[in-house]
Design brief:
By secondary structure, the chain is of the alpha+beta class. It is built from ten helices and eleven strands. α1 packs parallel to α4 (93-106) and α3 (67-76) crosses α4 (93-106). The chain starts with a strand and ends with a helix.
Length: 301
C-alpha cells in the first residue's frame, strides 16, 4: 500500500554526507526558481525540518502526477510564516521540495536516486514510482470500519485554514496513476522488512550488511534538533530533526493509515509496521504497541 516514511530525507542525508548538498545553503542555490515570492532565505534544513512555511498543497490529487507542474507551483508560493521560525508538517509538499533539490543535484528523480543509491545496494524491496510489474503484489488500502473509499484522513490541526491534509481519498491512493507517479512523501511502496532494512542504516552507524551509505556523523545529523514546539498543522508539540521526528533518543515517523518506523541508534533497534487496514488516527495504537513490545523484548536480554 502507499506508505509515508522518511525515505526522501534519507536521500538528502546521503547527498549531505557526500558533500553534494549543504543543509545551511539556500534551496535556491540548487533550484534558482525557488527564490521567488520571498523564499530566497529558505534553507535546505528548513525544508527538511518542516519549517519552510510551505505545508499546503492547494491543487488537486491529479495535479500531483505532474512533477514539473507541482514544483513550479511550489516555487511560486509565498511562505505562510518566516522560514525557520515555526513548524508545520509538510505532509505532501516536503517530498516534492526535497525531491526537486535531489533532481537538480543528481539529474535524476528521487525515485531513481533511491533505487540506485539506497534500496538497490541494500537489496530492499521498496519503490517510489511503482513499475507495472509489481502491481499484482500491491495490497490496496482498506478504509476504516464503516467508511468507504472516499474516506480521507487529514492532519488533526486546523483544516479550515490549511490544505496540508489535501483531501486525499483512499481511492486515490489505490489508483494506478498514484502508483506510477513519484509523490515522495506519500507514494512509497514496500513492506515492513524493506522499511526496517533501509532505516536500519541510521541505527547501525551508516552501514548495513557490508553496505555503507552514511558516515557516523551523517547518521547523527538526522537527530540534530531543528525545532521543538507546537506544530501548526499537526496541532500538537513536535520535535523535528533533519528530516525525522524526534522522540527522546529515537527518531522516525508515521504513515497514512497507521504505518510507522521508529529508529533507536542507542539500542541499534528499528521497528517498522506496515498495514493496509486503516483505522481512524485517534483510535490507532497498533504501531506504538509493537514499538513498546520491542523495547520490552530487548530490556529482557
Amino acid at each position: 500500500m502507499p506508505f509515508q516514511t522518511p525515505f526522501r530525507p534519507l536521500c538528502a542525508l546521503v547527498l549531505i554526507d557526500r558533500g553534494d548538498l549543504d543543509p545551511d545553503a539556500p534551496v535556491a542555490r540548487y533550484w534558482p526558481e525557488f527564490a521567488a515570492a520571498g523564499k530566497d532565505k529558505v534553507l535546505v534544513r528548513h525544508v527538511l525540518s518542516h519549517t519552510a512555511g510551505l505545508p499546503d498543497w492547494d491543487g488537486s490529487v491529479e495535479d500531483l502526477y505532474d512533477w514539473p507542474a507541482v514544483t513550479a507551483r511550489l516555487a511560486a508560493r509565498t511562505p505562510r510564516w518566516e522560514p525557520g521560525t515555526a513548524a508545520g508538517y509538510h505532509s505532501l509538499t516536503q517530498g516534492f521540495l526535497v525531491g526537486e533539490v535531489v533532481r537538480r543535484i543528481t539529474g535524476g528523480s528521487v525515485g531513481e536516486f533511491l533505487a540506485a543509491e539506497v534500496t538497490g545496494p541494500l537489496g530492499a524491496d521498496f519503490h517510489i514510482g511503482l513499475p507495472a510489474e509489481h502491481d499484482h503484489r500491491v495490497a490496496p488500502a482498506i478504509p476504516p470500519a464503516g467508511r468507504d473509499e472516499d474516506y480521507t484522513s487529514s492532519a488533526p490541526g486546523d483544516p479550515a485554514n490549511s490544505e496540508a491534509g489535501n483531501g486525499m481519498r483512499v481511492r486515490d491512493g489505490n489508483s494506478l496513476p498514484w502508483r506510477r507517479a513519484q509523490i515522495p512523501a506519500a507514494s512509497g511502496y514496500g513492506n515492513a522488512r524493506s522499511v526496517a532494512l533501509v532505516q536500519s542504516v541510521l541505527a547501525c552507524g551508516g552501514e548495513v550488511n557490508g553496505v555503507r551509505l552514511l558516515s557516523q556523523a551523517g547518521c547523527e545529523r538526522a537527530r540534530e534538533e531543528q525545532f521543538d514546539g507546537d506544530d501548526r498543522v499537526l496541532g500538537m508539540p513536535t520535535r523535528w530533526g533533519l528530516g525525522y521526528g524526534l522522540f527522546g533518543g529515537a527518531c522516525g515517523w508515521g504513515g497514512w493509515g497507521g504505518s510507522l518506523v521508529m529508529i533507536d541508534p542507542g539500542s541499534r533497534l528499528v521497528v517498522a509496521y506496515v498495514t493496509h487496514q486503516m483505522r481512524e488516527p485517534a483510535e490507532d495504537t497498533r504501531g506504538m504497541e509493537l514499538v513498546a513490545a520491542a523495547y520490552e523484548g530487548i530490556q529482557g536480554l
